[in-house]
Amino acid sequence: MLKKKKTEKEKEVYALGQHISMSADKARRVIDQIRGRSYEETLMILELMPYRACYPIFKLVYSAAANASYNMSSNEANLVISKAEVNKGTTIKKFKPRARGRSYPIKKPTCHITIAMKDISLDDKYVEIDSLKKTRWKNKYTAMAYRDMSDMYSSGGIWDKK
C-alpha cells in the first residue's frame, strides 16, 4: 500500500464520463473500492466485481491511463488513482401511458464520474508501507496440528458399542 507525504499538488491526468445512465449511489459503491489503488490492481478489481457500474468505470480508468501514457509519457505500472468521484447528473423524465388514460412518470438518473491518475515515479512523494499488512493467518495455520483420523475409524470408535 502506498501512503502520500504532505506536499503541494502534483500534475494529474483525468478522464471524465458524463451522463452515464445509472444512479450515483450505485456507481459510488464501486468507486469507493478503487480509490487510492494502483492501475493494475484497479483493473483486476473491476473485472471481478459483479456490478453493472464496473464497465463504464473500467472504460474511464483505461482512458485515464491512456491519457497519462500519451500526455506525460508515463508507464502504466507507476500509475495510482489519486482522485475518483461521482456526482449526480440530470434525471431523464418520461411518461408511461397506463390504463384509463393515466400516465406514470419514469425517472432515469444519470451521473458524472471523474477518475484522476498520478504517476508516482515522477516524484518521490510516495513511500511504501509494509507495516499495514498483517500476516496473522500464517501463525494460525502453521501452528495447527492435524490428528490422524484413521485410528478412530479402524478401531470403530463410538460405533462399536452395543
Automatic annotation (TrEMBL):
GO terms for biological process: translation. SUPFAM superfamilies: Ribosomal protein L22 (SSF54843). One of its GO terms (molecular function) is structural constituent of ribosome. Pfam families: Ribosomal_L22. CDD domains: Ribosomal_L22 (cd00336). Gene3D superfamilies: Ribosomal protein L22/L17. InterPro entries: Ribosomal_uL22 (IPR001063), Ribosomal_uL22_bac/chlpt-type (IPR005727), Ribosomal_uL22_bac/org-type (IPR047867), Ribosomal_uL22_CS (IPR018260), Ribosomal_uL22_sf (IPR036394). Keywords: Plastid, Ribonucleoprotein, Ribosomal protein, RNA-binding, rRNA-binding. PROSITE patterns: RIBOSOMAL_L22. The keyword Plastid applies. One of its GO terms (cellular component) is plastid. Part of the 50S ribosomal subunit. Belongs to the universal ribosomal protein uL22 family. This is Large ribosomal subunit protein uL22c. It comes from Neobracea bahamensis.
